Please model this.
Amino acid sequence: MAYKPNDHYARKARTEKFAARSVYKLQEIDNKHHLFRKGDTVLDLGASPGSWSQYASAAVGPKGRILGVDLKRVEVSMANATFLRSDINKLEMDEVLEEHGFTKPFDLVISDMAPDTTSHRFTDQMRSLDLCETAFSVAYKFLRGGGHFVCKIFESGEVQNFRKDLLEYFSNVYTVRPKSVRSESKEVFIVAKYFKGRNKNETDKDESTPQE
Ligand SMILES: C[S@@+](CC[C@H](N)C(=O)[O-])C[C@H]1O[C@@H](n2cnc3c(N)ncnc32)[C@H](O)[C@@H]1O
Model:
């Protein structure tokens, strides 16, 4: 049987009608790093059961849009959100974006993707890193200049290298461990802000990096 947490955050999520307690991780990251703006388009990788998309949907408002992708079905629906059930590695993103009318690059790419865990910590860490690298490769192609990228990663010796790689492509990179992450969990979140663009000309002129 799947483990169903029943801690403070799980109960709060049920009361507030969020699909999962994970929402409070994104909320805390957003409170600190101010990621969302009204009207933004957001790509949510690993979207099921749907709490990050619920949060993003409210944060971007009716003029914004969310595209959520997951191997599993997403359990919620919102007027400004589209969900696809797929392995991100197998998705033909260009076709999907055209089919669903996503005409501009995304303002934000967020990934809470996690592998099914095994009894081998190193295997889990490497699979988590793989998912982050996949998420970044999608962000690299579909994020606008000045946009932001968030991904969950299982802590390992490789996290510092991944962070270092991201610093080539983003102006600011942070590691965040929200209070709502369970104490026994090894997950942290990388928050990478102000994508430099695939080349300098692609970075929106009005998106110069504010001092933080
Ligand atoms: C922790 S859950 C995400 C929770 C979600 N952010 C929420 O707030 O409801 C991690 C998700 O990553 C998904 N995932 C793992 N590998 C994936 C892949 N290759 N492609 C798409 N989704 C994947 C899993 O199916 C799982 O639903």
Residues 153 and 159 are 8 Å apart (CA to CA). The helical segments are 8-15, 23-33, 51-60, 93-99, 121-142, 159-167.
